[in-house]
Amino acid sequence: MHKRTKIKIAIFVLLVGMACMFTAVVTDHWAVLSPRVEKLNETCEAAHFGLWRLCKKHIYISSENYVEGHGCGPISLPGDENCTYFRHFTPGQDAEIFEYKTQKEYNISAAAISIFSLAFIILGSLCLMGSCTGKGKGRDYLLKPAGMFFAFAGLCSFISLEVMRQSVKRMIDSKDTIWIEHYYSWSFACACTGFVLLFLTGIALLILSMPQMPRNPWETCMDAEPEQAE
Question: What's the whole-model pTM score?
Answer without folding.
Answer: 0.78
